[in-house]
Please model this.
Amino acid sequence: MTTTKIFVCPVVIPAKSPVAFMILFALLMFLMLTDSIVSNISLESAAFTQKQDSQSLQTLTVTRDIKSDVVLPLSLTVSTKNNIVDGDSEHQNSLASSLGVREKHGIGKFRRKPPEHEILKSDELTKKFHGRVLEFFNRGCELHFFMTWISKVGSFGRREIMAAESVFKAHPNGCLMILSRTMDSVQGYRTLKPLLDRGFKVIAVAPDFPFLVKNTPAEAWLDDMKSGKKDPGVIPLAQNLSNLMRLVALYKYGGVYLDTDFIVMRSFKGLKNTIGAQSIDVVSKNWTRLNNAVLVFDMKHPLVLKFIEEFALTFDGNKWGHNGPYMVSRVVRRVEGRPGYNFTILPPMAFYPVDWIKIGGLFKMPKDRAGSRWIEAKVQQLKRQTYGVHLWNKQSSKLVVEEGSVMERLMAQNCVLCTHIYSS
Model:
């Protein structure tokens, strides 16, 4: 028999050297342990990589699903560069991080209940909501106006009062209801009292949110949100509740919705079932984006119902504007031209004559004669062509109205109290 001695290395160990034997034994054990550790690390690394790849595929799939359902006009691509609209990667990263924290703590993907918001609370005051609305609008109102206020009552300042004043300057017999729990208070009454003292019909009413969404597609959305089945997202919930509240109020009662940073310049009596374009294509003159800061609709109008449905079905609390301006743009793009939807889209000059990037120019005083001529021409243009001016409060809230500016002229011409014109 032939003995094969492959991979055999003779080791000479002195029979009487226990120390050398122990050293060799320890060395062999160390090599075996190191090999085991390396193998385990490699397996864990491979598993982790596979899990990451799986999550990445899921993220890409969700992203494609969202983008295939959302038709974004060309102009939105420009806004993306300014980090105003898109921020998809940033939102996805923050959302993934948020989901990871939730999974770590064992609360699941959609089990983070939103904080109890004041506007969602029900009490004896909100139970009277519907009756108060009917009673208020049964006062021979020329037009019904709605505003919403979801901030503290002390934040309803001179800019917001100016917006209310302008409503009554153009509609002395109009009725303005401010849907707000905080303003429906003693302090809120004192804030509005100067207008009441002059005989104008204005009231703040704590809304009954469950009643407003009842029998609409948003009813189930609200239940899911309150129970934690719907993810509220990273955008402040109050902002999205305001987006929804204006829709359900118009659907239930009809009328005109206005943001509180809008100066009315002429009567809305000739408007019916109207929404305004924020931007248009300079070549085709077709609208590229709509906005929901001004809405004029009859009670139970089918387009408003579509808005509510879209809000509930595609709600995303992690994308700015997704449930507001972009939502109405998506819906109108789909239904425009279909039978049964009768509405009018007005050009930007109607409600959004100045883009948010340029709104600061309206607050500046003229520096020379050329500046004075520009201001005069702008004021005359706005008087002829606009129903009002949206002030883009997020951009202009801290700007001071300088004497001789376009804004000073507009406020002076459209106020009824006409105090503190030069204050923000």
In short: DSSP finds 16 helices and nine strands in the chain. The two ends are 105 Å apart (CA to CA). The chain has a mean pLDDT of 80.
